[in-house]
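hey all, quick one before standup. I had two proteins in the batch that finished overnight and I want to keep them in one place so we stop losing track of which output belongs to which input. First protein below, input sequence then structure tokens straight from the run.
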Amino acid sequence: MNSSVTEFILFGLTQDPVKQKAVFGVFLIVYLATLLGNFLILVTIKTSKTLGSPMYFFLFYLSFSDACLSTTIAPRLIVGAITQKNTISYNECMTQVFAAHFFGCLEIFVLILMAFDRYIAICKPLRYTTIMSQHVCSVLMILSWVGSCIHSSAQIFLALRLPFCGSNVIDHYFCDFQPLLKLACMDTYVINLLLVSNSGAICTVSFIILLMSYVVILYSLRNHSAEGRRKALSTCTSHFIVVVLFFGPCIFIYTRPPTTFPIDKMVAVFYTIGTPLLNPLIYTLRNVEVKNSYRKIFKVFITWERKEEAEWEFLGNWNNVHPGIN
């Protein structure tokens, strides 16, 4: 890397002071809600005995990747909205590029695994427990982590080769590869082709695979009972909503020539901050088993709280009756 730039300035979503206050308030609430929603899913799946199927095993890692992806990007956007100069060092910028692509790619692979799980459950129900064993699910998740690491390593390898010797203002709210290409002091045509063939190909191919899997699933449902079709459609609809909300913006950003549009930053908000918030809502509101597990956890918490209150009340009454006994 031959660069005279040691730090970058993130332009953010807006430079209007009034709008910045709105950005701070809105995205602070969104980020906290994202952490709370995904944390509840993580705790519920880990503590519930009824959510031990492969679907919830993969949902656990989807929530984990959502929380990590949002944490990689949202805090700096929130802090930058109330500071006059939102700077990020070169090393921090490269780290953000790596982390954003790592957890974004992990989410893609987990969504594919969830679709595969639904395909086996609906199309090959008699072999489901054999195919989707705990060992197989663990191996698939390990491969997803390895694949995500390879993808993000390729991204950071290309980013580290970019020389920066002019402007250091990134017209974005986080460090991403395409905004960095605009600042590089070199011809970036070939590198952009590599970017499209890497990130763009992963997004597009994964989206096509997911669409094909849902088509096969819907076709196979014609032989199921009305109740079976309703339950399968409810689950698949949740997955499909997540897929569209996540892959649509990703494909728009990473599968085109090195040109920028005013809408790019708002589109990026959908898959970096919006989807991590919506995933817990979608899987909670449309999933009876998760909602029942939530209720059990809340009942246990309320019972424990009432027990604590009763013990403190008993101790208070005891001290009133026997003031000399400690």
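OK second protein, same deal, sequence then tokens:
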Amino acid sequence: MLKNGTRLQSQVCDTQVIVVRASEALDDLRCGGALMAPIGDDRSPDAQIDATLADGNIMGKRYVEDAGAEVLVTKAGVGTLSIGSTPLALKEAKPLPASD
């Protein structure tokens, strides 16, 4: 299982993330359909982006999974972040209370 603070990179695009909240689901974390690898690992030469998972991601945004896993994008790319083939959801900011 991945630990909080683990840095990962995509095998098919420029995406890089940091694990903010780990869960067992992140063992199947993918970007553009290909498994993500620790930063510094060589890219797989035969990895291809899945056209159905190429909607991109946004630098500085957090993406979450239903079980509570959360990753922060540190470098954006064209691949969609997913657990298996299920895309992660963009985490919405919580509204601040009114200060009337």
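Flagging for whoever picks this up: The chain is about 0% helix and 30% strand. The beta strands are 7-9, 16-21, 29-31, 34-35, 37-38, 62-64, 70-75, 81-83, 86-87, 89-90.
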